Amino acid sequence: MTALELQSLGVSFGGFKAVDGVSLRVADGELRVLLGANGAGKTTLMDLISGKTASTTGRVVLYGRDLTNWPEYRIARAGIGRKFQIPSVFRELSVRHNLCVAASRQPSILRNLRWGFGHGIDARVDEILGLIGLESEQRQLGGDLSHGQTQWLELGLLIAQDPKVILLDEPTAGMTAAETRKTAQILKSLRGRHTILVVEHDMAFVRDIAERITVLHLGRVLAEGNVAEIERDPRVRQAYLGSHGIASPC
User: Fold this and answer.
1) Which is higher by pLDDT, 198 or 240?
2) Is 138:95 a contact under the CB 8 Å cutoff?
3) Domains of the chain, with CATH numbers?
4) For the whole model, what pTM was predicted?
5) How many CB atoms within 10 Å of residue 110?
6) C-alpha torsion angle, residues 218, 220, 222, 225 (rounded to 10)
7) Do 9 and 60 touch, CB atoms closer than 8 A?
8) What average pLDDT does range 41-68 have in this prediction?
9) Does pLDDT of 41 surpass 90?
10) Does an H or E element contain 166, and which?
């Protein structure tokens, strides 16, 4: 089953085609990686999918439902969640309370703080803490976490909202090698539970997590395939990888 489908999606800024007729299908439960040099259109494509930027051509379809150019909040409610490169969490709340707020179906944070969350949410939060590996830090304030831990917490906030599709923009930026390896483990554990689209530059990380890779170049799809197929593609080597291919994980 196709979870996310882009049909000839594009956007122009003053005549410049930042994304130029991109078509791709991401299967339900798939972990897809987007590769490409700076300026290839990766983040802009994420902006189009999430509604941050309105497209000028094409369609965005989620499980057969056309979401093209919907407002961001409606796209989020329809089931597309996005994590940006710079994490954003409730710094004055504990890790656990952050997740409780995200998992609550009550829109008012004040109401949540006043009345509590209930046993169902507590069980869900326990599950997410296990997924993101922050059980020992659950009483710490969000503002006291390390960079990697903050990234994992923000990913947990997304998971708590139970999106059908998760968009991740360079989730390992600024991480240590150990944090990058742990992030790979977290994403692989989510495979099959959520459909995940990842923009990433760390080639060792890409090799570790990728099921299928889409390579963008100058706003267009240049190639698509598994790691071995992408490494062998002469167009990708010329435009992006060079002679080294995709590095093995540390």
Assistant:
1) 198
2) yes
3) 2-89+165-241 (3.40.50.300)
4) 0.88
5) 8
6) 130
7) yes
8) 97
9) yes
10) strand 165-169
